[in-house]
Specification:
The chain has about 200 residues and is α/β, with parallel strands linked by helices. The protein is built from 9 helices and 7 strands, in the order E-H-E-H-H-H-H-E-H-E-E-E-H-H-E-H. The protein has a 5-stranded parallel sheet with strand order 2-1-3-6-7, with helices on both faces. A two-stranded antiparallel ribbon has the order 4-5. The model has no long low-confidence stretch (mean pLDDT about 95).
């Protein structure tokens, strides 16, 4: 399977980086074809510049000229894997900026011609969507506040993909209180889930 892996964490020494490395090792060992984007190491600019906004709807090709490798990777992929820490109930700003600059109209979705209709997804090539994340909050608190980050990705972003796209959500809660055994257990869970892709 062609898998686009997008990683977003500022520290290469973090547990997030360990998850990223484990994901790459597992997927490669199972014969998948990977394209990897490490947003921090790549120096990705998350800001949708005024000139890009001016062309956002009427000349998307000019926006794509600034990020062709990202759009190409998205259109190449059959599966999208995101690895990031949950901060302030959602993905880091850098990853959110990647969504805003790469999930473009005419690429990831079409705007409905009618009022009060949702966008129409165009990424039928993506049939598998996996999220690996950690959060400082315990699971019960995220459930109480309706887990906005998970909802945004598994409901909002998910509609851009193939209508039968399979979603996998792997999250280590209460990260600030996890010990080595808890982290090892989650790493094993991640490896086992990715081995089944």
């Amino acid at each position: 399977m062609r898998i686009l892996v997008v990683f977003c964490h500022p520290s290469p020494e973090s547990f997030g980086a360990a998850l990223f490395n484990a994901a790459q090792e597992t997927l490669t060992a199972h014969g998948h074809d990977l394209r990897v984007i490490d947003l921090y190491r790549a120096g990705f600019d998350p800001v949708l510049a005024p000139a890009e906004w001016d062309n956002y709807l009427n000349d998307t090709e000019r926006v794509i000229e600034n990020i062709p490798e990202h759009v190409d990777a998205l259109l190449w992929a059959e599966s999208l894997l995101l690895i990031f820490p949950t901060w302030m109930y959602g993905p880091p700003a850098l990853l959110k900026g990647w969504f805003e600059r790469v999930l473009l109209p005419g690429v990831a979705f079409d705007i409905s011609e009618n009022r009060n209709r949702r966008i129409v997804g165009r990424l039928d090539n993506i049939r598998s969507f996996t999220v690996i994340t950690t959060s400082g909050s315990p699971w019960w608190w995220l459930r109480l506040i309706r887990d906005p980050g998970r909802s945004m990705l598994t409901r909002g972003i998910r509609v851009l993909f193939h209508r039968r796209c399979r979603v996998r959500w792997l999250q280590l809660h209460d990260m600030n209180h996890q010990d080595d055994a808890g982290r090892r257990k989650f790493l094993a869970r991640v490896r086992a889930a990715l081995a089944k892709l």
